[in-house]
Design a protein that fits this description.
245 residues; alpha+beta; 3-stranded antiparallel beta sheet; 2 helices; 18 strands
């Protein structure tokens, strides 16, 4: 049987993976700080006897789009957005350091700064806590200041957010949606990363572009399935012609 059937089946499988990736991006159009996931494939020749007349696709890169999303004003002091490149550092459930662009933070019952999912937000000196009775302001370098809501007490510095900016090629997305440094470890603080208080960053997914890609992937899958069907019919016709049935 011609290798074409197997190659078309491999192409259809890759197209399904592409559709899953596009669907995931579309599902996160409204997720603050979400980074669109990218998939790419390259053509590779089929090894074996005879002329190299057949090629199949193999995954060449899986990464993410690091284009910043739009900043949306909320006026809420604990809504923070990275301006340009950079990441917030958080503590993952397994205790490792991870990174996110989703800066809609809050205080837990103990006054500790956490993400919407309850993960501790890291400061340059560890987790950041806010004592009761203080309002919070955040400078563009991540310095957090607490001002008493009553009385004449002096404002205090609560800590400074750990802001990092490791190279994109050294970052990978985990199954939990958080990013980490490849090979483990922690990234160094980058003093050039700046944030905006009272803003959240929207997802950088372009829904129109994703819908066009979804339509293209669907048509590609249909073509591959038609190729498989046609080749099966041709093979059956050849068998009938030469009496191989």
């Amino acid at each position: 049987m011609d290798k074409l059937i197997y190659l078309a089946a491999q192409a259809a499988k890759s197209t399904m993976a592409r559709q899953d990736n596009i669907a995931n991006n579309l599902a996160n159009v409204s997720t603050p700080g979400f980074r669109a996931q990218l998939m790419a494939f390259r053509s590779a020749p089929v090894e074996g006897q005879g002329q190299g007349a057949r090629n199949y696709d193999v995954e060449s890169t899986v990464g993410f789009d690091d284009t910043p999303g739009q900043l949306q004003s909320t006026g809420r002091p604990l809504d923070l957005a990275v301006q340009g490149k950079g990441w917030f550092a958080v503590t993952a459930p397994d205790g490792s350091e991870a990174y996110t662009r989703a800066g809609s933070f809050q205080l837990d019952d103990a006054g500790q700064l956490v993400t919407n999912g309850g993960l501790p937000v890291q400061g340059t000196g560890g987790p950041i806590s806010v004592p009761p009775g203080y309002s919070i302001s955040v400078a563009d370098d991540g310095t957090m200041t607490g001002t008493p809501t009553s009385g004449k007490a002096t404002p205090i510095q609560l800590g400074k957010l750990k802001l990092v900016n490791p190279p994109k090629d050294n970052m990978e997305r985990g199954d939990d949606g958080l990013f980490r440094v490849k090979g483990g470890g922690a990234a160094d603080v980058d003093p050039n990363v700046k944030i905006a208080s009272g803003y959240v960053e929207t997802s950088n997914v372009n829904p129109v572009e994703m819908l066009v890609e979804m339509i293209s992937a669907a048509r590609s899958f249909e073509t591959q399935m038609k190729t498989i069907s046609s080749q099966q019919q041709n093979g059956q016709a050849a068998n009938n012609l030469f009496g191989l049935n």
